[in-house]
Specification:
With 164 residues, the protein is mainly α. The protein has helices at 3-27, 38-43, 49-76, 82-111, 129-163. α1 (3-27) packs parallel to α4 (82-111), α3 packs across α5 (129-163) and α4 packs antiparallel against α5.
């Protein structure tokens, strides 16, 4: 694995990915309630069809773009072999996850006040930075992403790259 390349690519991917998610979140904050705990979702108003399409569009643009970027970057950097590509993609996805944790889950929520809170739960104590980090941010980005999401992306990237 080319560590310098993986770090620089991971940081660039993290900046682009999290900036795009922030824009989508700023445009329609309520559409992101589906990513929050079920108890909070039950308190909020239901998500409309338009809001569901909004988040689906974000997923369909961002995740394939990041995967294509990882494949092309590994190929261009001369990273070959299934496991070399897998660990490179895994590491880059972890950098995206850590960027999400710090930039979106902590900094953006803290700096925007209740503007990004879902309708019907604007004053819920869940949104206090400490609560949100302990109940959602840290478990999601330090357990779920490393154990489930990063390996899935790593296998996808390594599998496609090995076919090239």
């Amino acid at each position: 694995m080319n560590w310098l390349r993986a770090i620089l690519d991971g940081l660039a991917m993290s900046a682009v990915f999290n900036s795009c998610v922030a824009v989508f979140w700023l445009l329609k904050p309520h559409s992101f309630i589906t990513m929050f705990p079920k108890a909070l979702q039950k308190k909020a108003r239901p998500v409309t069809r338009d809001e569901r399409r909004h988040t689906l569009l974000m997923y369909l643009i961002l995740y394939p773009s990041v995967i294509i970027w990882m494949i092309l970057s590994a190929y261009q950097a001369g990273i070959r072999g299934f496991w070399q590509v897998f660990w490179t993609a895994y590491f880059e996805m972890m950098l995206i996850s850590l960027g999400d944790l710090f930039f979106l889950d902590y900094l953006l929520l803290k700096k925007t006040g209740n503007r990004l809170h879902a309708d019907g739960v604007k004053d819920d104590p869940f949104y206090e930075p400490k609560n949100e980090l302990l109940k959602l941010g840290l478990p999601e980005h330090l357990i779920f992403w490393p154990a489930v999401f990063c390996p899935i992306v790593g296998f996808i990237v390594a599998g496609i790259e090995s076919l090239l």
